[in-house]
Amino acid sequence: MNIQPISPVLGAEVSALDIAKPLDAEAVEMLRRALADHCILVFRNQSLTPEQHIAFSRRFGSLAEHVLQDYLLPGFPQIYVISNVKEDGKPVGRAGAGQYWHSDLSYMAKPSMGSIMYALEVPPGRGDTLFSNMYRAYEALPDHKKETLKNLKAVHDFAFTQKTQIAGKGLTKPASKETLAKTPPVEHPVVRTHPESRRKALYVNPGMTTHLVGVAEDQSRAMLDELFEHAVSDDFVCRHRWQAGDVVFWDNRCSMHCAINDYDENDRRLMWRTTIEGDTPF
Ligand code: SIN
Predict the structure, then answer these.
(1) Which residues pair with 212 in a beta bridge?
(2) What sign does the dihedral 192-197-199-205 (CA atoms) show?
(3) Strand pairing of 2-5 and 12-15?
(4) Residues 30-41: pLDDT tens digits?
(5) Lowest mean per-residue pLDDT among 4-8, 75-79, 93-97, 238-242
(6) Is the model's pLDDT at 165 over the cut of 90?
(7) 82 Cα: distance to centroid of ligand 1 (angstroms)
(8) Share of the chain above pLDDT 70, in %
(9) Which conformational region is residue 52 in: left (phi greater than 0), alpha (psi within -120 to 50 degrees), or beta?
(10) Using a 6 Å cutoff on CB, does residue 97 contact ligand 1?
(11) How far is the C-alpha of 57 from the C-alpha of 52, rounded, in Å?
(12) Dist CA 149 CA 191 (whole Å)
């Protein structure tokens, strides 16, 4: 396999590798290291069955079943379907998922380490995904800011995501009370250490982080807004232009992402995503 950076900001393309086939331990280790270094890995021209997608994903950890149970692929609860496609008038997946900056499952006590998304259908030239390098966002902060953030924690809350990012947009139905009961607010360090690279990364995101613990409300809002604006500046962001057959593996411990909603209901976009379980951030 070849692993080549795709931009000066983040990301590497892995070529000469068919991920539908079983991988040996050495290949898995190379991919793990590349992921921790580059934040996202792109594999082009892949063709996966659900079983192969799951088998590849499992080489990197146990798979989480998404809390939004209505959008799991029938027979394969490890695959979360993100799509605007309807069959017989019924959505085949969740439309409008992730159209705000976030890191997957940051609202859980043990958020996801990484997600692996396979593009089956994409509207030509539209429906891209933005990724931000949160190592670089942290490293570029002035020392006095790093010092201020050093021991701070932030609250992440799925109910907040529902209220601020989902409600009223008409793209997808809101999460049920039962789902929200399974996802109470959690606290995580504002700066986390990546368990594999040992590098520090900012770990707050506009879609799921509500406030800083022990900081006055208006100050917390101002500090978070400043961090969010900083983290999505051009210096840290790269755009993935999907083609059918792409697989993108992103590391939720050192990146954020945001899906762009620039297509309409006649443009079919169909993605399968596995979500790999992670550890308690430190
Ligand atoms: C997500 O997993 O947040 C959705 C990303 C996308 O659809 O591009």
Answers:
(1) 154
(2) negative
(3) antiparallel
(4) 999 999 999 999
(5) 93-97
(6) no
(7) 7
(8) 98
(9) alpha
(10) yes
(11) 8
(12) 7
- Paired tokens of 46: 């892949």
Say if 21 falls within a structural domain. Answer: yes
CA of residue 25 to ligand 1 center, whole Å: 28
Which residue's alpha carbon is at the smallest distance from atom 3 of ligand 1?
Answer: 98
Residue 281: inside a domain = no
pLDDT of residue 232 exceeding 70? yes
Select which of 104, 157, 246, 251 is catalytic. Answer: 104
- For the residues 200-217, what does the mean pLDDT come to? 97
In this prediction, residue 163 carries a pLDDT of 84
Instruction: List the CATH number of the domain containing 121.
Output: 3.60.130.10
Can you give the pLDDT at residue 171?
64
Q: Which residues lie closer than 8 Å to 89 by C-beta, 6 or more apart? A: none
Q: Give mean pLDDT, residues 136-164.
A: 95
Three-state secondary structure readout of 239-250:
EECCCCCCEEEE
Quick check: is 282 in a domain?
no
Q: What is the pLDDT of residue 66?
A: 86
Domain that holds residue 87: 2-276
In whole angstroms, give the CA distance from residue 109 to residue 219: 25
Instruction: Give me the number of domains the chain comprises.
Output: 1
Whole-structure pTM value:
0.96
Domain assignment present for residue 177? The answer is yes
Task: Kindly tell me if the per-residue pLDDT of 167 is higher than 80.
Answer: no
- The phi, psi pair for 46, rounded to 5°, reads -95, 155
* Neighbouring residues of 138: CB distance < 8 A, sequence distance ≥ 6: 146, 191, 200, 201, 202
Q: How far is the CA of 105 from the centre of ligand 1 (A)?
A: 12
